Amino acid sequence: MNLIATRAVLKRTHGNSNSSCRHCGSTETETLPHVLQHCPHNEVSIRARHDLSLRRIAAAIAKADSSCRLLVEQPLPEFTDALLKPNIILVDDANKTAAICDLAVSFDDGNIQGSGLTGFQTRAAETRLASSLSPLPKTSMPLIEALQQSALLNGIRVSPSHDVAMTAFADDIKIYSRSRAGIAKLHFIMAAFLDWTTMRANPGKCMSLGVRFDGRRHVPDNVGLTIHGGDIRAISLDDSYCYLGVREGFDHFH
Questions:
Q1: In sequence order, what are the residues at sequence separation of 6 or more whose Cβ sits closer than 8 angstroms to the Cβ of residue 193?
Q2: Beta partners for residue 168, in sequence order
Q3: What superkingdom heads the lineage (predicted)?
Q4: Are 24 and 112 within 8 A, CB to CB?
Q5: Backbone dihedral angles phi then psi of residue 172, each to the nearest 5 degrees
Q6: How far apart are the C-alpha atoms of 223 and 239, rounded to whole Å?
Q7: Per-residue pLDDT at 124 exceeds 60
Q8: Quick one: pLDDT at residue 117?
Q9: Could you give the 3-state DSSP secondary structure of residue 235?
Q10: How many CA atoms lie within 13 A of 127 on its CB side?
Q11: Which residues is 56 bridged to in the sheet?
């Protein structure tokens, strides 16, 4: 990849000071994934590449199996949320099953830089579609909704009428609670969601920050969380600044 002279490469190899994209004028770093997948300047080419690949795959599926109903970028007729249109749906009407597929080409990681749409949110949206078709209890809702529904009992109060249990940015999600029991409950929801979707978390990239009041000071209070067989590392307030880039509100008084 260093053979392609993106501004990210030029900054790393030649010491150039400006690494922002020269095409779209945004503050996003001009990396190869940005140019090939995320840059608005190349949006027409990006969509054309994706659509061409999708048409070829759909044509191959149609030739291979005529027993299933093939839907391309359409909602399921039985599903009321018309905004959710997976790339490919194969419906077996006889067995009342459906296979839902989304196409991803090179660098298509679902993370559209500079917008609120993320790979995590895409996965959560597809989970809402899958849950409507599955025999799982209707409590099997997208993760963000499930966490936020638990905010009143297990989250933190940010105003007299508003409680928060989570925040999300890109593929990072944080859960908050005012008690050990609350954080354990929210963590259980996270783990259950991952197990249900067959996704796995990387314990090495997970962190926990537990504090309690000792007089007028915040002191560390490790909550001892684990995920997929690994311990989640506990960090201090100072570590949180280095890891997350912000002090998580602990410098502010309420």
A1: 127, 143, 146
A2: 173
A3: Eukaryota
A4: no
A5: -100, 135
A6: 16
A7: no
A8: 40
A9: coil
A10: 23
A11: none
d(CA 39, CA 33): 9
Q: What element of type H or E holds 230?
A: strand 230-231
Position 128 confidence tier, pLDDT thresholds 50, 70, 90: low
Sign of the CA dihedral with 153 first, then 157, 161, and 167 last: negative
Higher pLDDT, 230 or 12: 230
Long-range contacts of 48-56 (CB under 8 A, 24+ apart): 49/105, 50/103, 50/105, 50/108, 53/103, 53/105, 54/87, 54/88, 54/103
Give residue 89's pLDDT band: very low, low, confident or very high (50, 70, 90): confident
Contacts of 234 (CB under 8 A, 6+ apart): 207, 208, 209, 210, 220, 222, 223, 224
* Confidence (pLDDT) at 140: 45
- CA atoms of 203 and 187, how far apart (whole Å): 13
Q: What is the DSSP string of 143-172?
A: HHHHHHHTHHHHSEEEETTEEE-EEEETTE
Structure tokens, 85: 């249109």
The Cα-based distances of 122 to 20, 70, 74, 136, 175 in angstroms read 26, 21, 16, 20, 19
Q: Where are the domains of the chain?
A: 7-115, 143-244
168-227 pLDDT, tens digit each: 766 678 888 988 899 999 999 888 888 877 788 888 888 888 888 777 777 778 888 988
Whole-angstrom distance, CA of residue 44 vs CA of residue 29: 20
